[in-house]
């Protein structure tokens, strides 16, 4: 019996490895045919070429060539935005991932200067020896700095807002081929347009980022009701020593659905154990991937995952961990391939006091449409309106949802329908939604969610009248293509 189980497990693992290899080969074959896509696999687009360059001069030349040949230019990082934000039909795609050097670490000023194609993982490696850490990045290390600035990311340290807060300055390659310094005092208008500006104003070259201290954290966990979250969070946030707060809502299809919350906090221990501060190898996450797969396919898998998360969280994440090791998370466990379905992310922001009311409406939509919800987490975003396309004009919670969805035309129409329903609820609760995901929102909804959108598009016309820098996001909402 034991042997039978072992053999089934080995077959399952081999199958998964086989699928993984097949998927990466497929990806290369597609790219050779001139078709590009993003991680959602929902946006196959024919392009003219992908250009990968390590030098500023090469990037400058590529932009110049495109301009002369009347080609559009799209800028791509790791292509984890899910709405074709990093490409456009027949465009020349600048793949920035080879432009990834750390230029300088200044421990005194706590500033790192890094090229925009570097991933957060690259930056963490460069700054860890200086006991420094990143202030704001996603929950995973594989995104590029340029891609992160261009969507203005946010995460789980309650003492920071969106990443713009940590940007000192950057160099921007403009449409006319010149390079300008951009900061809050030099070209301030471009500062507010480019950050969260989806690559529409030029190529971000290198960036000066403000850092924070690396430190050793101790994890604590509590399980609460979602209606309590506002009060619990408020108390936790007031504690300067609490540096990271993760909140996961139940996805189990039972009475806990979107009600029970595991709140995980990481508190600075003030310890300085050198061994703990060293960078550990990122864990393979095989068990996590397997469990995640079960929850994608079965309701009992969702229940099991939730039960294990509550009971045995120490088996998945260590109790004592440095900030850098906590942030240096590999996204690989989310890799998934199926010809018929895919996983997508969405995020809705609501003013902090509206969280419970919005969650009630969300639960209704999830249940009514029998949605395959794989994860639901809550993030905190303090008010920040430094960027034109700010999603944090009020102090808000972000509700981040990961769904498995069908890819057929019919199924996509349905996803659009219920996504618009959730978006309408976020808007009705004085909230908004996050732009880097699939472009399901209507023209009306995006304008309600982002009242400065048309002003942003007018500025685009002013800085780039020939619309050299293009992507599917701009084509959809500015040109209504
Ligand atoms: C599994 C998953 C988890 C996520 N978690 C979070 C999270 O915790 N918090 C959060 O805020 N977001 C999160 N996101 C969203 C993610 O932060 C964005 O999609 C981000 O843009 C991804 O970075 P990238 O390198 O893949 O950028 P890409 O998707 O390649 O590009 C994004 C945009 O940036 C532009 N761009 C890229 N590089 C440059 C450059 N050098 N100059 C000018 N423009 C450029 C592109 O043109 C495009 O418009 C998550 C996404 C996924 C898929």
Briefly summarize what is shown:
The chain has 481 residues and is an alpha+beta fold. It is built from 16 helices and 19 strands. Helix 8 (286-297) packs across helix 9 and helix 12 packs antiparallel against helix 13 (409-428).
Name a few traits of the molecule:
single chain, 481 residues, alpha+beta, Uridine Diphospho-n-acetylenolpyruvylglucosamine Reductase, domain 3, Vanillyl-alcohol Oxidase, Chain A, domain 3, 2 domains, eight-stranded antiparallel beta sheet, 24% strand, globular, binds flavin-adenine dinucleotide
CATH topology value of the largest domain: Vanillyl-alcohol Oxidase, Chain A, domain 3
Helical residues, percent = 25-40%
What is the CA–CA distance across the termini? 58 Å
- The total of beta strands comes to 19
The general outline is: globular
Largest sheet: 8 strands, antiparallel
Walk me through what this model shows:
- With 481 residues, this protein is an alpha+beta fold.
- The chain folds into two domains: 50-214, 2-Layer Sandwich (Uridine Diphospho-n-acetylenolpyruvylglucosamine Reductase, domain 3); 216-448, Vanillyl-alcohol Oxidase, Chain A, domain 3, CATH 3.40.462.
- The chain contains 16 helices and 19 strands.
- It has helices spanning 2-32, 56-68, 120-127, 145-151, 188-194, 229-238, 274-277, 286-297, 299-311, 313-316, 323-327, 355-368, 409-428, 443-449, 453-463, 472-477, and strands at residues 35-36, 45-46, 49-52, 73-76, 92-95, 102-106, 111-115, 132-134, 167-173, 179-183, 203-213, 216-225, 242-249, 260-268, 320-322, 341-351, 372-381, 396-406, 432-433.
- Helix 8 (286-297) packs across helix 9 (299-311) and helix 12 packs antiparallel against helix 13.
- The radius of gyration is 22 Å and the shape is globular.
- Flavin-adenine dinucleotide binds at residues 39, 74-81, 85-86, 96, 116, 138-140, 143-144, 146-148, 150-151, 153-155, 198-199, 203-204, 331, 334, 345, 436, 471.
């Amino acid at each position: 019996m034991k042997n039978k189980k072992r053999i089934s497990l080995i077959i399952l693992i081999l199958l998964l490895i086989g699928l993984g290899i097949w998927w990466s080969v497929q990806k290369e074959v597609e790219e050779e045919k001139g078709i590009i896509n993003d991680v959602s696999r929902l946006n196959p687009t024919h392009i003219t070429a992908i250009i990968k360059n390590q030098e500023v001069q090469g990037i400058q030349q590529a932009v110049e060539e495109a301009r002369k040949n009347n080609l559009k230019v799209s800028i791509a990082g790791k292509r984890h935005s899910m709405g074709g934000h990093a490409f456009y039909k027949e465009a020349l795609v600048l793949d920035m991932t080879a432009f990834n050097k750390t230029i300088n670490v200044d421990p005194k000023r706590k500033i790192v200067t890094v090229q925009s194609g570097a991933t957060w993982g690259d930056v963490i490696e460069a700054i860890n020896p200086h006991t420094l850490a990143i202030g704001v990045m996603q929950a995973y290390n594989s995104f590029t700095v340029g891609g992160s600035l261009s969507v203005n990311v946010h995460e789980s340290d309650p003492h920071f807002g969106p990443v713009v807060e940590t940007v000192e300055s950057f160099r921007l390659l403009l449409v006319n081929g010149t390079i300008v310094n951009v900061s809050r005092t030099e070209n301030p208008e471009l500062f507010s347009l480019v950050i969260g500006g989806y690559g529409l104003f030029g190529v971000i070259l290198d960036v000066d980022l403000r850092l924070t201290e690396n430190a050793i954290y101790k994890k604590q966990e509590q399980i609460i009701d979602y209606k309590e979250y506002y009060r619990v969070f408020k108390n936790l946030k007031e504690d300067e020593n609490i540096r990271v707060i993760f909140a996961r809502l139940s996805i189990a299809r039972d009475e806990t659905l979107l009600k029970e919350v595991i709140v995980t906090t990481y508190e600075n221990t003030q310890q300085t154990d050198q061994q703990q501060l060293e960078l550990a190898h990122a864990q393979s996450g095989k068990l996590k991937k397997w469990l995640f797969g079960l929850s994608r396919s079965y309701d009992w898998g969702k229940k099991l995952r939730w039960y294990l998360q509550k009971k045995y969280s120490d088996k998945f994440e260590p109790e004592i961990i440095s900030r850098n090791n906590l942030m240096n998370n590999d996204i690989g466990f989310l890799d998934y391939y199926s010809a018929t379905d895919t996983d997508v992310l969405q995020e809705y922001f609501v003013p902090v006091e509206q969280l419970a009311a919005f969650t009630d409406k969300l639960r209704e939509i999830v249940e009514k449409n029998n949605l395959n919800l794989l994860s639901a987490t809550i993030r905190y975003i303090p008010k920040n309106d430094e960027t034109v396309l700010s999603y944090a004009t009020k102090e808000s919670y972000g509700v981040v949802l990961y769904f498995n969805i069908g890819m057929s035309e019919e199924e996509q129409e349905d996803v659009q329908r219920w996504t618009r329903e959730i978006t309408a609820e976020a808007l009705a609760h004085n909230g908004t939604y996050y732009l880097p995901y699939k472009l399901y929102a209507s023209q009306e909804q995006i304008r309600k969610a982002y009242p400065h959108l048309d002003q942003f598009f007018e500025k685009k016309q002013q800085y780039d009248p020939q619309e050299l820098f293009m992507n599917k996001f701009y084509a959809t909402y500015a040109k209504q293509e």
